[in-house]
Write a structure and sequence with these properties.
By secondary structure, this protein is mainly α. 73% of the residues lie in helices and 0% in strands. It starts with a helix and ends in a 10-residue tail after the last helix. The model has no long low-confidence stretch (mean pLDDT 96).
């Protein structure tokens, strides 16, 4: 997986650099774009109940996937530009969450860690 992320990042950066878009990719602008694209994912589910979502996903999976890919693209560009190993960051975060949300306290609950 790590190698796939590196290959994908390299491809995205090559795409960006060929178009001279790095000048527009300041950390703030990437963060804004990341949030906007995440909102576009959310828009697919807005105002729908669970049954409507299940039906909608079956017929709109490609559109949802494109928005998710946009989120991933900005995330990978940010990680690259800020020299953050996103795989290591995720592994560290999962380890931290395992400690904050032990199974015996958190299983089946949506309670925040400080309220368990």
């Amino acid at each position: 997986m790590d190698n796939e992320i590196k290959k994908l990042t390299k491809r995205i950066i090559k795409f960006r650099d060929a178009r001279n878009w790095k000048q527009f990719h300041k950390p703030k602008d990437l963060a804004v774009s990341l949030a906007l694209e995440a909102a576009e994912v959310l828009e697919h589910f807005q105002w729908k109940n669970e049954a409507e979502i299940n039906k909608y996903v079956k017929t709109n999976k490609d559109e949802i996937a494109e928005e998710m890919a946009d989120v991933l693209n900005y995330l990978l560009i940010m990680a690259h530009d800020l020299n953050i190993d996103i795989i290591k960051a995720e592994e560290k975060k999962v380890t931290k969450n395992e400690s904050k949300y032990p199974v015996e306290k958190a299983k089946g609950k949506h309670t925040k860690y400080n309220k368990l």
